[in-house]
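Retry 2 of 3 after timeout on previous attempt. Resubmitting structure tokens to design endpoint.
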């Protein structure tokens, strides 16, 4: 199996369904694609009903192009990351990993067109975030929740309006930003720098106004990121956390106990926004992004400095922060239910506080004149407990 054959297989997989987001190769399973959030097998000619360890290894080696820089971490660490270009059709972020003495491959399709805030119907506060001059902005969520896409929309808005120098540190480069008003230098982990910490340290000497760090993976990267934000740079990055409170706690947890007070002070001074996102199944197919957004105000800074207390949790602060552009997941979920974009079951399943979402849904149903309970036919038993 050679590279042209690999390209033919990838091309067939891309055309098998609409909304294909991932291509998956696993031993003892057929070739599969994830479309609209669901895994689906793909028919091939000749058939590939059950992939063998040899076949997945050959596919992996072709994707890596026998690059020793990639083979070394695959054999030593059990995985490697790379990008792959299907000429003229698509680009992919590829993860090859070992499991049960064989290799598996997951290929995430990368969009070639850079999205805009309007096209993705993101919250209007994203325009405010893109106007920040310095500090730290974090986009968080689980793997595959669209963090990179949200960051790309912010950078695109800056590119349209600001004559600034932007440096990105990515693993791998996903969206290629053309030079518009801004000047972009995009660097890829493994090819252009060896770690996010070293890449970020070098970026401070490259005169950027904006630095994008693909992921805050460790303490050293966070510490240098805070230093960059303190010295007048705008630092954009991601974390694998599910809400604003967990994001703060994750950062604090990277440091020793005796350093906690100092990190709280630095974080309170530099943090500008935390945007957390989840993808929910949309009625009619596809997925809908919902957001929790926390900006900074005096209450947020106080909670970062002193920790959360009863009635002063980050959730409570966000719930009452509408005038600052803040919103909880639950508020966004209720809004999407009201607009008919998601089902009631989906709303309850993805809620942060299910009781809050249930109350919101009941109020919407009541306003529509719909039933809010399944209990019917209640009557007064006049003979109960009579002798």
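Retry 2 succeeded. Sequence:
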């Amino acid at each position: 199996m050679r590279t042209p054959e690999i390209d033919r297989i990838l091309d067939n997989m891309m055309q098998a369904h609409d909304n294909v987001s991932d291509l998956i190769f696993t031993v003892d399973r057929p070739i599969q694609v994830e479309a609209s959030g669901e895994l689906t097998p793909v028919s091939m000619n000749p058939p590939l009903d059950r992939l063998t360890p040899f076949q997945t290894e050959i596919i992996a080696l072709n994707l890596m192009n026998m690059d020793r820089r990639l083979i070394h971490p695959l054999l030593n660490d059990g995985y490697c990351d790379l990008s792959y270009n299907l000429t003229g059709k698509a680009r992919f972020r590829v993860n090859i990993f070992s499991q049960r003495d064989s290799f598996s491959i997951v290929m995430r399709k990368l969009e070639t067109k850079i999205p805009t805030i309007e096209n993705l119907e993101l919250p209007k506060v994203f325009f405010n975030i893109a106007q920040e001059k310095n500090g730290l902005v974090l986009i968080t969520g689980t793997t595959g929740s669209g963090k990179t896409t949200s960051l790309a929309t912010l950078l695109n808005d800056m590119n349209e309006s600001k004559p600034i120098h932007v440096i990105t540190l990515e693993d791998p480069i996903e969206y290629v930003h053309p030079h518009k008003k801004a000047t972009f230098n995009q660097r890829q982990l493994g090819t252009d720098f060896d770690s996010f910490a070293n890449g970020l340290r070098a970026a401070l000497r490259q005169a950027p106004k904006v630095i994008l760090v693909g992921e805050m993976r460790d303490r050293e990267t966070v510490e240098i990121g805070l230093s960059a934000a303190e010295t007048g740079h705008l630092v954009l990055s991601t974390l694998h956390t599910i809400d604003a409170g967990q994001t703060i706690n994750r950062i604090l947890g990277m440091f020793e106990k005796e350093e906690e007070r100092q990190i709280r002070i630095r974080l309170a001074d530099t943090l500008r926004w935390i945007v957390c996102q989840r993808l929910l199944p949309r009625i009619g197919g596809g997925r809908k992004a919902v957001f929790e957004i926390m900006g900074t105000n005096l209450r947020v800074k106080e909670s970062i400095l002193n920790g959360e207390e009863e009635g002063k949790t980050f959730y409570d602060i966000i719930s009452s922060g509408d005038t600052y552009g803040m919103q909880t997941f639950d508020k966004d979920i209720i809004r999407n239910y009201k607009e008919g974009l998601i089902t009631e079951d989906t709303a309850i399943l993805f809620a942060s506080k299910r009781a809050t979402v249930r109350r919101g849904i009941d109020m919407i149903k009541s306003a529509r004149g719909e039933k809010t309970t399944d209990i019917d036919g209640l009557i007064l038993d006049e003979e109960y407990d009579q002798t």
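Attempt log closed. The CA atoms of residues 47 and 369 lie 54 Å apart.
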